[in-house]
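pinned: reference chain
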Amino acid sequence: MKMTQFTLNKSAKIKIDNALAYFIATNMMPYSLVEKDGFKLFVNALNPSYKLPGRKTLTESRIPSMYSETRDIIGNIIRSADVFTFTTDCWTSSSNQPFIGLTCHFINDNFKLTSACLGCIELSEDHTGENIADVVQTLFLDYEIPDRKICSIVTDYGSNMLKAVRNLNIPHVACFGHALNTTVSRIFNMDEIKDVVHKIKLIHNIFAHSWKAVREMGKI
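pinned: its structure tokens
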């Protein structure tokens, strides 16, 4: 069946461009997606009159515009909240880029627990307590969060994180997930547990490399 082509007006074109930018941002797709032949073919099949924006348009216009709009929305929501707690952490990506993230948590007007990411920033400086505290404090100022609304901040047990919290002079709550992970890691390093794990791996290898063993197990 032949599809009918329809011409897009300017507002419709912008709406689709923004939807594409949202898709790329929320699904962490590469900007090069718009240059892939298969994707171009797919979009052309939907509507031949739609012209995909280039990488430059996405990186310099659509994505920054969407970021600004989203930031304004989050800012308005935050200003209406009475008290916040925060979580923050540093990590290095698979491409060896260091980042720091800060998320705020609060009860909204509908008495619903709400979270919002205030920033995910490349931290090219050393991950010292001073530098971490500076980034967090800058985000507090950017979103105009007064000290009286800050209840606590949750971090892991890293010495740099603990120092950052002291510099910020904010009540600290230790991350339960990090504490649990540390505890389990220490347990698995015990000689008694290592011996059990080794035996389990040997049993697993038998069934992983022998379909006959799997067949016989199925008969039990």
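why pinned: The mean pLDDT is 90. DSSP finds eight helices and five strands in the chain.
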